[in-house]
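Appendix B. Chain record.
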Amino acid sequence: MGGCGAALLGLTGGVGILIASSGGEGEVVQQVQTAAPSASIAPVVTASPSPSPSSTPTPSPSETLTYTNSIYGYSLQYPRDWFIQTDPAGYAIIASYDPATAKGVGGFPPGAFKIDITTLENPKNLTLSEWIAEFDKTSAEYDSLTVESQSEVSTPVPGIMRTVRLGDVAIREYLFQAGSGVFYMSGRPADSSAAGVFDPIVQSFKFSR
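Structure tokens predicted for this chain:
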């Protein structure tokens, strides 16, 4: 399921992690097992007083590129002038900046926005709400975690959309159950001027097989 949440987010080494800061990819707040890739992911059919990110124009199809993840069997669209990084395990990062050349605090430029996409295990077969509650409580930064909004969504796949805050960092999250795991997509910081693209990217998600 630097700077991809709760919160939840990132991969490094051989396991899945969650990265929850406006810094670079190296800041880890929690470590979890990454769900083992399977032939496909079958969906279980299943704010803060800060500047509104919705002011960012929604990219049109001609202004986007399509990313296809062959490991987990999904595709989505992202802005043509953004950057994407992937690894062999299927973890993906979509960013408004080039991480290889970015400057700033922890390599995260002012006004930048970063999306982390991964799939995390659900070994206890919890409901999505139960899984999120347990994950939050085991976060290394649980004491500084505040859930600002949370709601069930029906598209693109039934799941939960929420906004959380870890210290000063606001994070937008989309989660849904996928086979024996939980698909997780997060965008940070949620109050960035570039954050308006997060929901359109989420809505462009679809299973490719």
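Further analysis of this model is presented in Appendix C.
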